Amino acid sequence: MKTKSSVLLTAVIAVLSLGLLSLESAMACTNLIVGKKASKDGSVMVSYAADSHTLYGELYRYAAADHQPGAMRKIIEWDTHKYLGEIPEVAHTYSVVGNMNEHQVLIAESTWGGRKELEDPNGIMDYGSLIYVGLQRSKTAREAIKVMTDLVEKYGYHSSGESFTIADKNEVWVMELIGKGKYGKGAVWVAIRIPDDAICAHANQSRIQQIPFKDKKNCMYSKDVVSFARKMGFFKGKDKDFSFQAAYNPYDAGGLRGCEGRVYAFFNKFNKDMRHYISFIEGKTKEPMPLYIKPDRKLSVADVRDMMRDHFEGTDLDMTKDVGAGPYVCPYRWRPMTFKVDGKEYCNERAIATQQTGWVFVGQTRGWLPDKIGGILWFGCDDADMTVFTPMYCGLTEIPECYKEGNGDLLTFSWTSAFWIHNWVANMAYNKYNYMIKDIRKIQRELENSFDNVLVPAVDKEGQEILEKDPQNIVPFLNKVCAEVANGSTARWKQLGEYLIVKYIDGNVKKEKDGKFQRTPEGLAVSPDQPGYNEEYYRHIVETTGDHFLME
C-alpha cells in the first residue's frame, strides 16, 4: 500500500528526474559544531571536510558483527594504508556508515601536528583507526572517549596531535590528544563538553586553553596532562594556568591565519561580538578566541552546510576581493599555501571551503527519533562550495553506487562516481567562477531544499510507521531512499556539467530564453555574448604594461 509519505518520496525522486529532462533542454580538515539548544530543530550537528590532495571521496561502511574469543583486528593506517599491528576484537561491533554509527555516535577530526618530538612511529593506533574503531565499539560520546583513550594507552598512538569532535544524540565533546614520543607510551589528552546552547569549531590548531579540572561532569583528561608538559619543559606554573594549546601546539603565523582563521569565520558569522578577533588572526594581538561561544541565533542544517562553503566572504579576509581572485572573482588559490617574492614570504588564505576536499558532511543526531532514522549524515564529495549534501541515514546498510568504495579512485575516472562528477563541474567553474556559480547554486538549492522540506519529513514519518508496524523493512526502505537520492543527485550534476560546458565554451556565454539555448530560425546557435573581463582586470593590465597594448 502506498502511503501519503510514499507519495512524497516519489515526488522528490520525480524532481530529480524532471531536473534531468529540463537540463537536457535547457575538497586539511575543518569541524563546525552546534549544540542541540543552539540548533533550530534540537539536533546536535557536526560538520567535517576531509581535505587532502590524495584522499578519494567515498562513503565508508562497516557492518555490525559478532566476533569469536581470540579474534584480532588488523590496524591499517588511514592516511597511508600501512599495516601497523593488531588488537583484540570485542564480542560485538556496531554498524557504521561514514563517520556515524547505528546509535547516532558521530566522530570527526582535524590534525594539528604539534610538537614533533612527541610523535611515536611504534604506536599502533593512528587517528583514523581510533575514529572507526571507536564508532564500532561505542553507544555514547562518553563511551567513545573512553574506548579511544584506553586503546591509545594500551597500544600506543601512531599519529601526531589531533582534535576530535565526538557527539551523540544528547551531547558533543572536543577531545585533543597528542602522543609522548620516546618519552612514554600512550598520549596526553583533554576532552571538554561543549554546552548545549553553544557553537564551537576547530581547524588544524589545538584550541583548548585552561582545563576546568574540578568539573568532572564536563571535563575529562589524562592524569599526566600537566605533569608531562612540566617534565618536557613545555610549561612552568600552577595547574590553573596551564593551557593545553600553549604547551602542546603553540601558535605560529600559519596556525593563526590558516587555521584559527576558519574558526573566526564561523564565530563571526553567528556572533557580531567576535569581529574584534580579526586582530588575533592577523597576529597583532594575543588574546585567543574562546573554545566555544553562544550564537546570536539558532542554526539550521542549511546554515551549517552553507558555512562549509565559506571563503571569508564579508570579512577582512574575503578571498573574492584581492587580485588573486582574477577577472572571474574566484575564491580559490592553488597550493602551495605560501609563496616568496623578493625574499619575503606571503600567504594565500585558507578558507573552510577548499578545492582539495575528498568528501564533506554535516552530521545530525536527532534524539527524539529512533536511531535508524534519527542519525543523518548529509554527505557530499569534493569541494563543499560546489557539492550537493545528500541525506544518508545511519540505518542504511548498502552504500549508493555513486559513493561506493571501488567506484573509481584518484587515478581512475568514473562517470558514476560522485567524486569525479563533482570535480569535473568544479574544475570548470574555477575558471569562470562568478558566472558558473550562479548556475550551480540554482541546482544546488533546488536539490537541498527539496531534501529539507520534502524528503526528510517524509522519511521521518514513513520510517516511524514502518518501525511500528513492519520493523524488518526499515533497512530496505532506507537503502532504497538513500540510493535514489544520492545516485539521482549525481546524475543531475552530470547533466549540469553538460549544460555548463555548452553554455560557457571558449569564453563565450550562450544566449537563453525560457530555459533553452536560443537558435536562429534556421536552427543554428544564436551568436553568443562575449563578456571578456571586468574593468578592474583591464585596468590592472594597463597599470602593469603601460602603453604596450595601447592602440593609436
Automatic annotation (TrEMBL):
<feature type="signal peptide">
    <location>
        <begin position="1"/>
        <end position="28"/>
    </location>
</feature>
<keyword id="KW-0224">Dipeptidase</keyword>
<dbReference type="Pfam" id="PF03577">
    <property type="entry name" value="Peptidase_C69"/>
</dbReference>
<keyword id="KW-0645">Protease</keyword>
<dbReference type="InterPro" id="IPR005322">
    <property type="entry name" value="Peptidase_C69"/>
</dbReference>
<keyword id="KW-0732">Signal</keyword>
<comment type="similarity">
    <text>Belongs to the peptidase C69 family.</text>
</comment>
<protein>
    <recommendedName>
        <fullName>Dipeptidase</fullName>
        <ecNumber>3.4.-.-</ecNumber>
    </recommendedName>
</protein>
<keyword id="KW-0378">Hydrolase</keyword>
